[in-house]
From TrEMBL:
Residues 7-331 form the NAD(P)-binding domain. This is GDP-mannose 4,6-dehydratase. It is an enzyme of class 4 (lyase). Its EC number is 4.2.1.47. The keyword Thylakoid does not apply. Catalyzes the conversion of GDP-D-mannose to GDP-4-dehydro-6-deoxy-D-mannose. NADP(+) binds at Y123. NCBIfam families: gmd. It catalyses: GDP-alpha-D-mannose = GDP-4-dehydro-alpha-D-rhamnose + H2O. CDD domains: GDP_MD_SDR_e. One of its GO terms (biological process) is 'de novo' GDP-L-fucose biosynthetic process.
Length: 345
């Protein structure tokens, strides 16, 4: 019998990669998308899976309980991967309630749907390193105390504890993947890595003069998304449900990533000035290519993230393999290629 999986948020970065992985493994996949005024299937199209016979695209909204009940009744899944979310931390400060509704109550809807329809369904919850926020230990692991710093982080912490509560109360096989930042050429362009690689490629192609950024001092543990979705799948194949950190155990500043990306696009940058007056200058021409715009600063910042993935390595045999240099070069190359072909996606 083919295994059946629901992937919420198939139009997002992780949803697209996970659907590809599950289809490759022979699953039947029910991938959910939201009704919007314009379709948003560019990621599954770029992976070439949109017409796969075992992929069913289902209209769905996390904020609607009935929608979750219908989804599980119709798909009868063995596994549910809840990847759908308002996932942009910056936007969560402007839309705290909508973010909480989707990420917090939306998760509860799915858990309730599992409790009410079939408690044997295995459930993956997309938890996040943002829950560590103002970090209480370095590096961060599964039992590091949480201290979220954004409405996004708080909403995800609610979902994290709800998943654990349903595991303990009803015996539901619920796993929380505490994933650190993971990126790829399919990353949304509002997130800093893709914003930088897209801009470096556009500057190289003469389509942009200067890139505006916020806090360059923030440090992140960045890995490759394709490897992280494999970790999600491994969690649901384990003997017991548990929480796992997926990370690379390396941290770099946003400034370092900017430097790396522009190098991959053929520039050598010199950083000058301090704080919000800092600029990055092309050493060859003396042109300013990067400036700070205070509007990209957040009301509260997560300064430093670095994860300890040893539990996932020991229990799941999972390890991040792609280096940040390789990931960054892959993203810049994909953006240069896309621009040279005149494609927007
Ligand atoms: P994306 O922002 O790329 O994708 C989010 C998906 O959720 C999209 O398909 C989006 O649909 C969908 N969605 C948003 N709101 C709703 C809603 N109300 N109902 C149904 N679907 C909705 O995120 P990623 O793929 O990067 O991340 C996947 C998950 O992992 C998210 O939960 C994120 O918070 C979490 N996470 C991500 C990390 C990362 O570094 N990428 C790290 C840790 C956790 P639409 O296309 O219509 O907007
Ligand atoms: P993050 O990712 O908030 O870590 O959340 P993002 O790429 O948005 O920010 C990373 C860091 O870069 C700083 N920064 C900027 N960020 C953006 N987006 N735009 C800018 O111009 C800019 N300048 C500096 C930010 O302040 C921040 O410190 C991501 C999301 O995928 C979440 O869903 C996920 O849970 C976490 O990663 C782990």
């Amino acid at each position: 019998m083919k295994k059946r999986a629901v992937v919420t948020g198939i139009t997002g970065q992780d949803g697209a990669y996970l659907a590809e992985l599950l289809l490759d493994k022979g699953y039947t996949v029910y991938g959910t998308f939201r009704r919007t005024s314009s379709v948003n299937f560019w990621r599954i199209e770029s992976l070439g899976i949109q017409d796969h016979p075992e992929l069913h695209l289902v209209e769905y909204d996390l904020t609607d309980l009935g929608s979750s009940l219908t989804l599980l009744r119709d798909a009868e899944p063995d596994e549910v991967y809840n990847l759908a979310a308002q996932s942009f931390v910056g936007a969560s400060f402007n839309q705290p309630e909508a973010t909480t509704h989707t990420n917090g109550l939306g998760t509860l809807h799915l858990l309730e749907a599992i409790r009410l329809t079939d408690r044997k369904i295995k459930y993956y919850q997309a938890s996040t390193s943002e829950m560590f926020g103002k970090v209480q230990a370095i590096p961060q692991k599964e039992d590091t105390p949480f201290y979220p710093r954004s409405p996004y982080g708080v909403s995800k912490l609610f979902a994290h504890w709800m998943t654990m509560n349903y595991r303990e109360s009803y015996g539901i096989f619920g796993c929380c993947g505490i994933l650190f930042n993971h990126e790829s050429p399919l990353r949304g362009r509002e997130f800093v890595t893709r914003k930088v690689t897209d801009a470096a490629a556009r500057i190289r192609s003469g389509k942009l003069d200067v890139l505006l950024l916020g806090n360059l001092d923030a440090k992140r543990d960045w890995g490759y998304a394709k490897e992280y979705v494999d970790g999600m799948w491994r969690m649901l194949q384990a003997e017991k449900p548990d929480n796992y950190v997926l990370a690379t155990h390396r941290t770099e500043t946003v400034r370092e990533f900017v430097d790396m990306a522009f190098r991959a696009a053929g520039y050598e940058l010199r950083f000058e000035g301090m704080a919000q007056g800092e600029v990055a200058i092309d050493r060859k021409t003396g042109k300013v290519l990067v400036k700070i715009d205070p509007k990209f600063y957040r009301p509260a910042e997560v300064e430093l993230l670095i994860g300890d993935p040893s539990h996932a390595r020991k229990t799941l045999g999972w390890e991040a393999r792609t280096t940040l240099e390789q990931l960054c070069a892959m993203m810049v190359e994909a953006d240069l290629q896309r621009i040279s072909e005149g494609r927007s996606f």
